[in-house]
Amino acid sequence: MATVLVTGANRGLGFEFVRQYAAAGWHVIACARRPPAATALAALAQASGGRVVIEPLDVLDHAGVDAAARRLEAQAIDVLLHCAGTMGRGSTRETGFPTNRFGELDYEDWDTIFRVNVAGPMKVTEAFVAHVARSTQKKIVALSSNLGSIASIRTGGIYAYRGSKAALNAVMKALAIDLARKHGIIVATVHPGWVHTDMGGPRADIDAPESVAGLVKVIDGLDAGKAGRFWRYDGTELPW
Ligand SMILES: NC(=O)c1ccc[n+]([C@@H]2O[C@H](COP(=O)([O-])OP(=O)(O)OC[C@H]3O[C@@H](n4cnc5c(N)ncnc54)[C@H](OP(=O)(O)O)[C@@H]3O)[C@@H](O)[C@H]2O)c1
Questions:
Q1: Does residue 240 fall inside a structural domain?
Q2: Got the DSSP string for 166-199?
């Protein structure tokens, strides 16, 4: 049975990945930063017949990430999926609109956005690389955003989030080179579309089940030739 570890599994796209991978018969390690509050996830785990297990993991807590990696020491992880992410305080969830406007920037918030969206996936990758290296599929996938595609920028604003996803893209591209060479691991970056979640808000284009169904296919189809590239949920490629 293949195993996937999903960060940010409490809600949104992470939760939907857990649902779809479990339904497809995968063993799912669903990571949430506050498991006692993850009631929908707990219900999903309980109904899964043991396929879904919940692990506490806050990507800002690096000692906690290392402890989770040690707890799962014997586990091979076929797909390490970085879903945890934030738009910060000026987000759709918090304010109904992604603010972060020039002249009103909050640099503490900026710092948190970069620590969650860039250092978070990096730290989780460092902690779990051995688990992925000993698996069969050997894949690491990060949820980025088309907002991080510099070549696609047509509108301004959303500076911190956009900058964090561009930085994530650069980090994942470099990791794709290093980890392919050292461990034969396939690293890729994906864009889920504009999705109706707390982050995407009510005006988004698509629902989480459609986005995740597409992304699962994209992840299934990843091979060495598709590593170090940026894929949309419908299988088309995005420019950096
Ligand atoms: N929705 C979209 O339209 C869209 C578009 C492009 C890219 N994305 C990317 O897709 C990913 C998932 O987005 P989403 O729409 O599902 O967002 P969401 O509904 O806001 O969910 C975000 C998830 O990340 C978790 N999280 C936040 N900070 C964390 C931390 N420090 N440690 C661990 N988990 C943390 C949250 O946990 P809690 O529940 O505990 O807060 C939650 O489970 C993100 O990386 C996002 O940037 C989304």
A1: no
A2: HHHHHHHHHHHHHHHHHH--EEEEEE--SEESTT
Q: How far is the CA of 97 from the centre of ligand 1 (A)?
A: 16
**Residues β-bridged to residue 53:** 29
Q: Classify residue 222: in a domain, yes or no.
A: yes
Confidence of residue 95 (pLDDT cuts 50, 70, 90): low
Domain count, the chain: 1
Place of tokens 């047509």: 154
Per the prediction, the chain carries an average pLDDT of 95
Q: Does residue 177 sit within a domain?
A: yes
**For residue range 11-46, what is the model confidence (pLDDT) as tens digits?**
999 999 999 999 999 999 999 999 999 999 999 999
Band (pLDDT 50/70/90 cuts) for residue 116 is very high
Residue 118: count other Cβ atoms within 10 Å of its Cβ.
21
Instruction: Give the residues surrounding ligand 1 with Cβ less than 6 Å away.
Output: 7-8, 10-14, 32-34, 58-60, 83-86, 93, 116, 143, 145, 191-192, 194-195, 197-200, 204
Does the residue 32 lie in any domain? yes
User: Which of residues 157 and 23 earns the better pLDDT score?
Assistant: 23
CA distance 123 to 119: 6
- Ligand 1: centre distance to CA 187 (Å): 20
Residue 231 corresponds to which tokens in the numbers above?
A: 């894929």
